[in-house]
Amino acid sequence: MHKASLILLEKGEIYVKKYDIKGMSCAACSSRVQKAVAEIDGVLSCSVNLLTNSMVVDGDVPSDIIIEAVKKAGYSAEEAFAKKSPKSKELNTLKSKGLGISFCISLILLAVLMYISMGHGMWNAPLPQFVSNKPFLLGIIQMIFSASIMVINRRFFINGFKGLFHLAPNMDTLVAIGSLSAFMYSFVLLILMSFTSNSAIMHQYLHGLYFESAAMVLTLVTLGKFLESRAKGKTTNAIKALMELSPDTAVIIRDGHEISVPVEVVTVGDVFVLRPGNKIPVDGVIIEGISTVDESLLTGESIPVEKREGDSVSSATINRSGVIKCQATRVGEDTTLAQIIKIVDDASATKAPIAQTADKVAGVFVPAVMLIALVTFTVWLIIGKTFGFSLARAISVLVISCPCALGLATPVAIMVGNGIGAKNGVLFKNATALENLSKVKTVALDKTGTVTNGNPSVIDVITADCVSLDELLLAAASIEANSEHPLAKAVSEYCKGKGISPQKIVDFEDIPGSGISGLLNESRIYAGNLSYVGKKSKVPQNIIDHSINNSSKGQTPLFFANESDFLGVIFVSDAIREDSRDAISMLNSMGITTIIISGDNERTTAAVCEQAGVNSYYAEIKPQEKERIIRDMQKSGLVCMVGDGINDAPALTRADIGIAIGSGTDIAIEAADVVIIKNRLSDVVSAIKISRAVRRNIRENLFWAFAYNIIGIPLAAGAFITLLGWELNPMFGAAAMSVSSFLVVTNALRLNFLNFNKDKKQKEMKAMKNEKTIYITGMMCMHCEARVKQLLEGIKGVESADVSHEKGTAVITFKNDIKDSAIKKVIEDNGYKVTLIQ
Question: Which of 11, 207, 237, 291 is deepest in the core (most CB within 10 A)?
């Protein structure tokens, strides 16, 4: 888990910088900023996110040049740092509250204005005596109320005209021009009213005023911004929740005493104490005690994980039982939690390919709308309509247009999708991966450590004639001690259990995909597959037949020989993961072809394929050949590669989407586009489901954004007046624009209600109720395992027992509850010691 979350997004290393942008209000703004920065020499790529008001720049360009370019475009920027101010959340809340206050005050003033203009003017609602039948005074009062609302919402005019002066008009420009046009037209009528004493003409001017429209547009747009701000705040709830997971204090040991200190002062090497219920403050390793740790807040894993001395623990997880002492290994921004937050945050700042069309439209949207409004005004005047009627149609075009919906369609869905992934133990490194994973046609799987557990064990040993077991095991222990392969580790552990210590090997050589060799006491030892060792020594036919038979059962034969003689074969088996069969079955049912690519022999690979339900396989593949196979697969569609080892890195990079399993090597995780925190193949299924849901949501948002503007702008311009008699008042246009952005954000929030792991968690909870884990000391070898297994399965009610002398544990599954004392007595009566039962 820890490796998976500790690989940073360093594609551009120090050249990738993130900036906070201020002043953006719509997609036209983000498009303007992105274009301005992208034109700077040395900038390789630039991505501006309207949702988070942030920008990621890749290129060796000084920050002051970037900031100056943004400033010239009409906005402000500052470099964002990894550790944000603790007040950032409060500032966002204050912004939302500020919009809410502005709306409430505007609404109160608007209610009075509407009563005067519409209530009295259209329905003869009563007014105080001093203003009754005084049209000029009523006009002055309307102007005062309208001007007050314009002052309260002056940010639209400041930002709008600022953008216009920089030749970068935005949504605020449309609102400002629309509202100001209505106000100025009404102001002119009010001046004309002052030059006449004719009551009929004055009342005619009074009915032609649009002060209420100017005020209504601003009030409704402010309401839309307020609702949008609240909804956008919810899209970042996943990151906020992660940031709040870490405790504020830690109990550390200083001079032999326990003291509580702020978590910020904990340093690497400090020893901290955890009691049941405590949140773990920083990453560390247990140096004393046994407990279970709830990692569900980080990984989505509902079952607490057993931890004992030497095991690692992660910040923000919860100690459920037992008192343990841990030594801090990673603190501050280096912790698991901090790195997960960084990955999710950085991924949310990137753009998905599907957003490119919307970005292109947004770049020309506002100027196009202003042109349409001008044409609308001119055409209605030419065909004989009044100035007021023509102006109303132009204002309607300006205020109904909504570039915000286009700009928010993609980032809100990406943000929510990344949050869902983080909560379920899936980290998407960028938006491209989140989108493209939904289109994958083939999933290629590494065998060892991905489909299988990655913890192989020795099943059988056969020596050649005239070769003793100790002679074979000495050669095997010595040569395999120099290899990092999981099968080598299994052989080493087995030899250690037999009391065989490895001797020094010189001139060690590793032939990837074939085997290894080295000098032991001046005699060269060879170890590897049949084709490799068979070239060095003659392998007896009966050994070959035996290996063929065992390989068909999923066992991998490792052959050993020296310069003169064949020594023997050791059979190693790596059981498939508990969830592999279900996960692969679900992938197949989703219309995805599953393929195993393995360096193991064909019979073993075929046996694992059959057990796991994989469609097909490639066996005896060297690491450098995996990349070629992936390239060939890509001719038939997008390919996803799932792996965990160094030898998978080229294939992970070559694949359209690379997924690294959490227990994998740093190189594999860094090469991948998606990281599965836990060692579960089923989370690959969850990742694809999340991707498909997000892509579907983005398409829905973009459809709404485009459809709204395609229908709304002609309607506002009056295109349907002659045909259907539909005429849109500017006030209703402003209301429609306000709702459009809110609907886009709300639609993205629906993703939060999708439960991608419901069935899995139900199975886990059921399993948790019927399992007990027993910690046992005294087991030394596989014979001990077999003995303890026999003892436990002999207890009435026990269905099965999974025993490991390496872990010192036994996990029993039972139907009816069994007393811990009965379990302890059976084990300890046979010479073993029970330290804990959970």
Answer: 291
Q: Of the candidates 540, 538, 531, 541, which has an alpha carbon nearest to the alpha carbon of residue 564?
A: 538
Measure the CA–CA gap between 314 and 328, rounded to whole angstroms: 10
Amino acid at 47: S
Q: Strands 442-446, 639-643: parallel, antiparallel or unpaired by DSSP?
A: parallel
Measured CA to CA, the distance from residue 205 to residue 692 in angstroms comes to 58
Is 446 labeled as catalytic in the residue annotation? yes
Nearest residue to 402 (alpha-carbon basis) of 128, 226, 670, 172: 172
The answer to whether the beta carbons of residues 428 and 674 sit under 8 Å apart is yes
> Using only C-alpha atoms, what is the Rg of the chain?
35
Using a 10 angstrom Cβ sphere, with 0-12 exposed, 13-18 middle and 19 or more buried, the burial of residue 12 is: middle
Contact present, 440 and 638 (Cβ < 8 Å): yes
Phi–psi pair at 194, nearest 5 degrees? -70, -15
Here the tokens at position 578 are 């508990």
Number of other CB atoms surrounding residue 42 within 10 Å: 12
Residue with structure tokens 């705040």?
A: 233
SS3 508: strand
**Catalytic entry in 294, 345, 346, 446:** 446
pLDDT, tens digit (0-9, with 9 covering 90-100), for 540-593? 998 998 888 888 877 889 999 998 889 999 998 887 777 888 889 899 988 999
How far is 131 from 205, CA to CA, in rounded Å? 16
From 780, 820, 772, 776, select the one nearest 800 (Cα to Cα): 772
**242 class by beta-carbon count within 10 Å (0-12 exposed, 13-18 middle, 19+ buried):** buried
pLDDT digits over 462-518, tens only?
Answer: 999 888 999 999 999 999 998 877 788 889 989 988 899 999 999 898 887 788 999
Coil, helix or strand for 645? coil
Supply 666's token pair.
């740093």
Residues 6+ apart with CB under 8 A from 383: none
Given the structure tokens 């720049």, which residue do they identify?
57
